[in-house]
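Morning F.,

Quick status update on the modeling queue. The single chain you submitted on Monday has been processed. Sequence for confirmation:
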Amino acid sequence: MIKDLEQRIIYEKDGLLVINKPYDLPSTGRALDDDDCLQYWLMQRHGGMVWAVHQLDADTSGVNIFVTEKKLVKHYKKMLENTQADKQYLAIVHGIPKWNKCEEHGRIGKIDSRSLGIHPEGKTAHSKFEVLGSGIDCSLIRVRIFTGRTHQIRIHLSHLSHPLIGEEWYREPACTLHKRQALHCLKIHLPQTGDAFTAPLAEDLYQLTQSQGLSQYMEANLNV
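Structure tokens below.
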């Protein structure tokens, strides 16, 4: 059970349900009765079916959009897929990039039977990165994505040689400096409706920015 679920509700109106998703919990599970996911607990609260409009990895925190009417799934998915939709994340990565801003278009697909990565025959993917500040061999990066491929941000950052702190899959060796990948969905703005939803940086990531000398950059640049 999510003890602070009510406090995590960002917006709830007309079938739209926006949550500040905690880490260590995927958006959806393997089945509707799988209680190891956010969808299950929202269904218990709602007393009926709830659908996820988009997915966040289990260890990614932040803005997660759900709907309580099936007809709204396609409606909001289309909005999110619009290139004008503003989907912002904060990432804490290894190293100090030589660039201040960077765009990555590496296609994402299966590189073997079990793993995803950059593949010439993969699906198109587009991410934009901006360095907000750097500490001791780490950096705080604002990410904007224009497609929603599985593990897109994680794969693109690893491809750029700046994997997330806490990254287990797309870094060799796996990073054990933090208990989860340092990635947070900060904001989603839907220009079609004018709605903008934000989620404050999760406490464990805020503490990470402090320990890595990055908190000043976060506070100075978080004008969302």
